[in-house]
Amino acid sequence: MALRFAITATKMKTLMCDQGDQSPPRKGKNLKVLKKLLISRKPRDKKTYKPCMFIPSNYCGSSSRRKAGTIFSWMIDRNVVSSMANVYYRNEAGTRLMKGRIRRDGIECNCCCKVFSLTAFETHAGSTYHRPAAFILLDDGTGRSLSDCQKQVDTGKCKLVQINGKSPSSCQQRLSDEVCSVCFDGGDLILCEECPSSFHVKCLDLIQVPKGHWFFRSRCCRICGKGRLVEGCCVSCQQCKHRFHHICLKMKTKSSDWKNYIETGKNWFCTQSYEKIFFGLGNFTRKQIQLGNNLTWKLLKSNGNPNYHGDKLSVALDVMHKCFERSKDSYTGRDVAEDVIFGRESKLKRVDFKGNYTVTLEENGDVATVATVMVHDERVVEMPLVATRFSHRRRGLCRVLLNELEENLRNLGVEKLVLPSLPSALETWTNLGFSKMTDEDKSRLLQLTLLDF
């Protein structure tokens, strides 16, 4: 029984349920919730936020005994550095400015015994280089910086995937997907001629199986609707990934702007809305937003370079794995959460996560809450994975992360935020102002490939 829900920012609490067929739900089926963002709100004072200080019953009472979610705990768990290992901050002239010891939650300064994050320890040492990982070195004679240690973890992880995991080439040996990209169930499927996507006829609102060659809409020109887009004769939007024939763009736009983008190698966008979203979210990845009370909101994105947000994304993945059971996709054989967070690309549309973002909320450098963000079009953004560490739960931190995300998306013109939910968690979302998806919303979202796990 497929259930889909929508979340709205209005105070309407009417709940509707799409019963679908009466067959039992297959394992892994989740609910979808959607939140409308075009609601004006009074700007909140970020500095006055005070989270509820509810402490779980199993809390040990000491922050040092709590399992931290920091870059340090990430490296300690992988045996790259040792807990309580001696480190020091060295400036460009080679002078040691400050000494300390690595703990799971940060660096404990030898002079004041306070625990600092990477950036805070650099500031404490009186430096303004803003490259803490490169200038904090292990005092073990190896000369390794914390930046070198982070690279060591990334290199080891890549080797592990190549040896024990399925490489992209082996995954692509399977020509077509075994489940429908709309309902994620098997059965009699029609196959795209150009990509591995498969579909039920009824899920595409078709009366019968198409005659001749058939192409999935993502493999067709968005203007003429024809497939077989030959490389060099088409252009793709940098944000939505939709493809267009050069000739179709020329006839429709009567402008050569798209051609100038191709010749100069710049990003091209099919609408100004996509351009605004692309550069707007990109700007957020280069900064962090301080929310007060030692809370920091960050937007991360993987670009294939381990040095670019790689360490923070790995910590975010650890949070997901501690909160949820690992789920492997039937087509790729890989961990879904890892593919989503690291934005891995695929020819199969339903597991193509290139361009995804990850949002983190940190408290004193400790990653408390994590969410993943997938932009589908100008109107809809999906947040398929949300997790809060057990030690940080029941303090309203998920609400803080969501409020900041909604505000930023709304400013970029996004209208709706889609979110999957377990039936048991529905009450949690309705308490946050959510309501079930209407039939109209369901029909509009059928054209989007939402994540199912």
Question: Can you walk through the features of this model?
Answer:
There is one protein chain. With 453 residues, this protein is of the alpha+beta class. The chain folds into 3 domains: 39-57 and 285-414, Aminopeptidase; 71-164; 171-277, 2-Layer Sandwich (Herpes Virus-1). Helices cover 26% and strands 17% of the residues. It is built from 13 helices and 17 strands. Strands 1, 11, 12, 13, 14, 15, 16 and 17 form an 8-stranded mixed β-sheet that branches. A 5-stranded antiparallel β-sheet has the order 5-4-3-2-6. A hairpin with a 6-residue loop joins strand 7 (190-191) and strand 8 (198-199). The longest helix is centred in the middle third of the chain and has 19 residues, at 146-164. The radius of gyration is 24 Å and the shape is elongated.
Short account of what is shown:
Helix content is 26%, strand content 17%. It is of the alpha+beta class and 453 residues long. The radius of gyration is 24 Å and the shape is elongated.
Provide the fold topology:
Elements: E1 31-36, H1 71-77, E2 86-90, E3 96-103, E4 106-109, E5 115-116, H2 118-124, H3 132-135, E6 136-138, H4 146-164, H5 168-171, E7 190-191, E8 198-199, E9 234-236, E10 243-245, H6 246-253, H7 257-264, H8 272-284, E11 288-292, E12 295-300, H9 310-323, H10 336-341, E13 357-363, E14 366-375, E15 380-382, E16 386-388, H11 397-411, E17 416-421, H12 426-431, H13 439-445
Parallel strand pairs: 15-17
Antiparallel strand pairs: 1-17, 2-3, 2-6, 3-4, 4-5, 7-8, 9-10, 11-12, 12-13, 13-14, 14-15, 14-16
